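This follows on from our talk about sequence and fold. I would like you to pick a protein and set down its sequence and fold. Go ahead and set the record down below:
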Amino acid sequence: MKMKLHHTPYVARRISRDLVNCEFIEIRKTKDEITVEVQRILDEDLDNELALDEKVDLLLDGEEENIEFYNADYRQLFWMAKKRMANEAGVILNNEDRFSDIAHKVLDYLWEEDFIHYIVSDNKVKNIIFDSIDEFLKGFEEADSAVYEKIKTYKRKLIPGSEDYDLVYHRLYEEELIKRGLM
């Protein structure tokens, strides 16, 4: 599953929790300080992809007449162009490779800035970070579906995108994540 911008606070907290609870990692800063930096790294990665999406969108907007003339599928063209431009933009499209790359960035930053210390192999610590991301995103879909079902049962109809909807969604979402052990 693809990580989205609204996932990053939850994923960052999950990574921090897993690092703090690991017996072979010495934590040298607070859990909150680690969470802030992990979220920053995750947000930067997603911002990089969003910038690529905008570039592809601009490119295809310039070719709108040709796309209509050839009756081409816009989504397919978008994906093909994104795939072609991803390498030069530094965006990894394969989720497993991407999560591994993010785990390396997080590990490198936390080590270099003296947030954590360990005497085991880098790979062992990187796998903790990778597993945190992977497990969270696997559990996300189930939690997300449960929240949407709960919101449907509300007597007061909430409009997706409204402030009330967002408040209720995030409260229920956090409850689901806690219930599932994802946070």
